[in-house]
Design a protein that fits this description.
Layout (H helix, E strand, L loop, with lengths): L5 H9 L26 H8 L10 H10 L1 E5 L4 E3 L7 E7 L2 E6 L5 E7 L3 E4 L12 E4 L3 E7 H10 L1 H27 L2 H12 L5 E3 L3 H8 L3 H13 L3 E4 L2 E4 L2 H9 L1
Antiparallel strand pairs: 1-8, 2-7, 3-6, 3-8, 4-5, 4-7, 9-11, 10-11
Helix pairs in contact: 2-3, 4-5, 6-9, 7-8
């Protein structure tokens, strides 16, 4: 499979700190070990095989994939993809969380998708999936694999099972997007916020890492509105609100809001 210089061009951009000039050696990306991009093939392969899409690969294909990708770690708040980019690379999120968002005419940020570990995203015209004018931002410390779009397409042609699994993943993501769009169109903000809290809570009923502003961006509204609604939920004994943490106290009550 032939490779392109897409990864090299993207990494040249990603490894510059915001505000630095081309050619700077300052590195905004780091690993948990030595502050450099992760390059160990065995380490990369272990991360890649955690992604369901790549499990059908043969041993030679796995070796090729590990050698053809680059793993980088991105700090929280880094925007690593913008709408004006040509879309020559595909990203595989191995650890952390990434928001895909658009900027409205009035300056508001509208989050169209929040991606978790083992998610593949980027411009993939072969499968009808694209970024559609979105920004991509790491909302917590994230480990990301970078693969050229041409190499992914070649891999799918060589091993169609990869394409089938990727289609299944994209289909599930599209269904979730349609449900969120339906909620935005037909349900009130209290119902949408209650649904979001129920969906994001862990098994202990805790939602970590979201500010009121970030919740507002997920819902397409203003921070003040979300703060007021959380205050109402708190006064009704439904939630406890702490800095960047929300604990669900009454799931039944929130479910009643979600269904209203």
């Amino acid at each position: 499979m032939s490779t392109t210089n897409a990864i090299q061009r993207k990494l040249a951009d990603l490894t510059r700190r915001p505000g630095t000039q081309k050619g700077s050696r300052a590195n905004a990306w780091k690993t948990t070990r030595d502050g450099k991009m992760i390059g160990d093939a065995a380490s990369k392969l272990g991360y890649l095989l955690e992604t369901e899409v790549f499990r059908p690969l043969s041993a030679p294909e796995r070796t090729w994939l590990a050698e053809s990708t680059t793993m980088v770690s991105c700090e929280r708040g880094r925007v690593f993809y913008t709408p004006d980019e040509p879309g020559e690379v595909v990203f595989i999120l191995k650890r952390g969380r990434v928001d895909l968002y658009r900027i409205a005419a009035d300056g508001r940020k509208l989050v169209v998708a929040t991606l978790g570990p083992h998610t593949i995203f980027g411009e993939m015209g072969l499968l009808g999936q694209g970024m559609y004018g979105c920004y991509a931002e790491a909302t917590e410390e994230s480990l990301i694999c970078v693969l050229s779009r041409a190499d992914l397409q070649a891999l799918i042609r060589r091993n169609p099972d990869v394409g089938l699994r990727l289609l299944a993943e994209l289909g599930a993501r599209l269904q979730q997007r349609e449900e969120e769009l339906e909620s935005l169109a037909f349900r009130g903000l209290p119902a949408r916020l209650a649904t979001l809290l129920l969906r994001e809570a862990d098994i202990y009923g805790t939602i970590d890492g979201y500010s009121h502003q970030e919740l507002a961006e997920r819902l397409g509204t203003y921070r003040e509105t979300v703060s007021q609604l959380l205050g109402r939920f708190r006064s009704e004994g439904l939630v406890a609100v702490e800095p960047r943490r929300i604990r669900l106290l009454d799931r039944t009550g929130l479910e009643a809001y979600a269904e209203s």
